[in-house]
Design brief:
Distance between the termini: 65 Å
Membrane topology: Multi-pass membrane protein
Radius of gyration: 35 Å
Strand order of the largest sheet: 13-14-15-11-16-17
Structural class: alpha/beta
Largest sheet: 6 strands, mixed
Helix content: 40-55%
Subcellular location: Membrane
Pfam family, one: ABC2_membrane
Number of strands: 21
Strand content: 5-15%
GO molecular function, one term: ATP hydrolysis activity
Transmembrane segments: 545-565, 577-596, 616-642, 654-677, 683-702, 774-795
Shape: elongated
């Protein structure tokens, strides 16, 4: 039967059904044809829900009722999308799981994309007879509650579709009407955020050695983002998504060079602190804090002002990200500390940036490692955040149909080339115009990535010999590179590219309001906040110091029972020296158990420092002050047990020196571990390096061989003098033996210095033990000073990763 084309226009709408807690997204392809017999038909494809449908006609306007259940009816005023002839031809084509791919100028019938589906998985469009005439291209959706025949119900939510072409008068409009999003709890309304427009023109980013075939990671990209909208940068892996996002945020590494122009509110001025937020793909959170505590400490670090003001912005951030139900719940994330799920943790990381109430928020992969439900909830939350006025720009690899319908604009990249920029529905039309229409049962984002991802060529090569009687596996003759060139050429010559340039010109012809810094907390405030937060975290997580305290007590009890009852005779001197050496050396070695906690602190610092929430100096001071109470507790508890079980001299001043000396030893060891962890940023390599260093320091400490007898090169200079074991053990032995007198026979006695000099080299000066303690204190600060230089000037770029990379390159070159 012949069909006559009347017109076509695509729409995506969201409906909220009664009884559903969240808006349920549906994509309607509503098609109208006029038959020769003067009767009319309507074809409808409903994604992703495929329930039985029935139709009832109206007299003045066409109204179709789709019955989802016995108690839920949906009433829609229909719009035109595609003709019956187009949908019928596509259905016949995609039944074999492939879509036609051709250039804009000439069709290539034998070139198909490869999709794997089960036989019969694709249904025919449903057609309905006797549809009256109508000409209005706009759409209005309503829902009614009641029975099948039923009238009455709840109030109607109207949603007017947004035109395809962008305009400055409707900067808050997207390619679809925003869904109704429930508030995150609480009776108070969330305050609006003053967004800012951002536009980029001919943006090119180069990185030396980033790619084998080209140093250009991003090539001549154009685009823009408006307040109150979500602009997504989509593409396959290594397409330049994250690089483009970092370039817009001004966070490119030193090895990258950017060419082109970036405008914020029409001005080329940079974005000052607090005017924008950037969320990394993987952010480190503090699992032992609740959501409210974590955000509150972040506000204290970021914001100036009074405490009650900071509490207000924290509550706003909690409500904006729908975290009210989890505000008093531990973040968790450890095997021994259950907490939030991945989607909730991701929202907490975004809420941390919302504390500053940024005008523009950049997010790298907000759906990273999220399941479909968490991804949809995340995007609905971000849609609500955009409705508050914030400008959202983020990257994404792929999305479901529901998530895709929430995007306002899309920037499609492949190998750094911009294949499309515009509204989401226009992207579907762009692929169709280029000869790659989206299959009926295919997700738009999956179809886009299928067309532009060169990795599919390898899959096709593996499956080229497969045969299927039902036609589910089709031969593929078009290379992905050809499809990419076709899409790029089609976009450059399209009206979409011209409209982007026009919009950028309008946004940049006049400078708007320049963004100003909102100020930041002072250095003293941030040191106090980090110190208190460190104390709280260390007291809650047993792996920081409580585990080490238990290990120290076990070690001390073992040494104490092994060397108990030595007495104070001359014959016990050598054994007493061995006991002190074993205590200091093995206790320092057990401190390596704190490497995982130090690595986590460094990761948290890196996450905060990247957004200027913290600095190297305040981090080191806060970590140092926060660790002092726990290190002193470990020192005094272990020293008391060892001191009395071994039976050292019964003098309170000597006992206090023993405690302080061992405390300084722990401070030095903590600084050494921080230094090694800062270099490697890896548990395995840090542990291996520290064990090797401790073994070498123990050998050079002067117990196995007196320091004067050690070989001068290497062992004496410099190992014996850079080993903190040397100064700690020497100070403790001077504290024990200087001033002591031992009887030799009945008439002769010798001093403690003479008694020990054959077993260990110490100074006869009574003040030398304090010099040894000052050396330990200087070493404790010296290691932290080196760490400060590494963190401040970025000299530690994951050494282990670089060495492994060089090793792999050498292996590949040798092959």
């Amino acid at each position: 039967m012949n069909n006559k084309v009347i017109g076509h226009k695509p729409w995506i709408k969201y409906l909220k059904f009664k009884g559903f807690p969240h808006p349920y997204p549906c994509i309607f392809h509503i098609c109208r044809t006029q038959r020769v017999e003067s009767s009319h038909s309507l074809a409808l494809s409903l994604f992703p829900r495929r329930d039985s449908l029935s139709l009832s006609g109206g007299s003045t306007s066409f109204r179709s009722r789709f019955v989802f259940s016995s108690s839920l009816n949906l009433t829609i005023t229909c719009v035109k999308v595609q003709t019956m002839e187009e949908i019928q031809s596509q259905s016949d084509l995609y039944r074999s799981s492939s879509s036609c791919a051709s250039s804009p100028t000439s069709r290539v019938p034998s070139s198909h994309f490869f999709y794997v589906r089960k036989p019969g998985s694709l249904r025919q469009p449903i057609s309905f007879e006797d549809s009256p005439e109508w000409d209005d291209p706009d759409a209005r959706m309503e829902y009614e509650a009641g029975g099948v025949g039923g009238g009455g119900g709840d109030s109607i939510n109207d949603a007017t579709a947004t035109p395809i072409s962008p305009s400055l008068s409707k900067i808050n409009s997207g390619s679809m009407a925003s869904p109704h999003v429930p508030e995150g709890g609480g009776g108070s309304a969330v305050r609006k955020i003053a967004g800012a427009s951002i536009a980029w023109r001919d943006l090119t980013v180069t990185m030396t050695g980033k790619r084998k075939y080209s140093d250009k990671v991003v090539k001549s990209s154009n685009g823009y983002a408006f307040p109150g909208t979500m602009t997504v940068i989509m593409g396959p892996a290594k397409s330049g998504k994250s690089t483009l996002l970092r370039a817009l945020a001004g966070r490119l590494p030193p090895s990258a060079k950017m060419y082109g122009e970036v405008f914020v509110n029409g001005s080329k001025s940079y974005m000052p602190y607090g005017s924008y937020g950037y969320v990394e793909r993987e952010t480190e959170l503090i699992g032992s804090l609740t959501v409210r505590e974590f955000l509150y400490y972040s506000a204290l670090l970021q914001l100036p002002g009074f405490l009650f003001q900071k509490r207000g912005v924290v509550e706003d951030a909690i409500q904006a990200m729908s975290l009210s139900d989890y505000a008093n719940k531990l973040i968790g994330g450890h095997c021994y500390m259950k907490g939030l799920r991945s989607g909730e943790r991701r929202r907490v990381s975004i809420a941390r940036e919302l504390v500053m109430r940024p005008h523009i928020l950049f997010i790298d992969e907000p759906l990273y490692h999220l399941d479909s439900v968490s991804a949809l909830l995340m995007m609905v939350t971000l849609k609500k955040l955009a409705s508050m006025g914030c400008t959202l720009v983020f990257t994404i690899y792929q999305s479901s149909t529901e998530v895709f319908g929430l995007f306002d604009r899309i920037c499609l990249l492949s190998n750094g080339n911009t294949l499309f920029f515009g509204e989401t529905l226009a992207c579907l039309q762009h692929f169709s115009n280029a000869g790659f229409p989206c299959p009926i049962m295919q997700s738009p984002s999956d179809h886009f990535l299928r067309a532009i991802n060169t990795d599919f060529d390898r899959i096709i090569a593996m499956c080229k010999n497969w045969q299927d009687d039902n036609g589910d596996f089709s031969a593929v003759n078009m290379d992905t590179a050809v499809a990419i060139r076709t899409l790029e050429a089609t976009y450059r010559s399209s009206e979409d590219a011209a409209s982007v340039e026009t919009m950028i010109f309008k946004l940049t012809e006049r400078e708007g309001t320049q963004l100003k810094s909102k100020g930041k907390a002072g250095a003293a405030t941030r040191v106090a906040v980090l110190t208190w937060r460190s104390l709280l975290v260390m007291s809650r997580e047993w792996k920081y110091y409580w585990l080490r305290l238990i290990l120290y007590m076990i070690l001390t009890l073992c040494i104490g029972t092994l060397y108990s009852g030595l007495g104070h005779s001359l014959s016990s001197v050598a054994t007493r020296v061995s006991a002190v050496f074993v205590f200091v050396s093995f206790a320092s070695l057990l401190g390596i158990a704190g490497i995982p906690s130090l690595l986590k602190e460094i990761k948290i610092y890196g996450s905060e420092a990247s957004n200027q929430h913290s600095g190297a100096f305040v981090f080191l001071v806060g970590q140092f002050l926060g660790s002092i109470p726990f290190l002193f507790l470990m020192s005094i508890s272990s020293s008391l047990v060892f001191y009395f079980m071994v039976g050292l001299r019964d003098d309170f001043s000597l006992l206090m020196y023993f405690v302080l000396n061992f405390f300084m030893c722990l401070l030095v060891n903590e600084g050494l571990m921080l230094f090694i962890a800062c270099i490697w940023r890896d548990v395995y390599w840090s542990t291996l390096t520290l064990i090797s260093i401790h073994v070498i320091m123990m050998l050079a400490a002067g117990h196995f061989r007196i320091r004067n007898a050690l070989p001068k090169p290497v062992w004496t200079y410099p190992l014996a003098y850079i080993s903190f074991h040397t100064y700690s053990i020497e100070g403790l032995l001077e504290n024990e033996y200087l001033g002591e007198v031992f009887a030799v026979g009945e008439v002769r006695s010798i001093s403690g210095y003479e008694a020990i000099r054959g077993d260990y080299q110490i100074s006869p000066d009574t003040s030398s033990k304090w010099r040894n303690m000052l050396v330990l204190l200087a070493m404790a600060f010296g290691y932290r000073l080196i760490v400060y230089v590494l963190l401040r000037f970025g000299l530690n770029k994951n050494v282990s990763a670089r060495l492994l990379l060089c090793h792999r390159k050498n292996n590949s070159s040798s092959r």
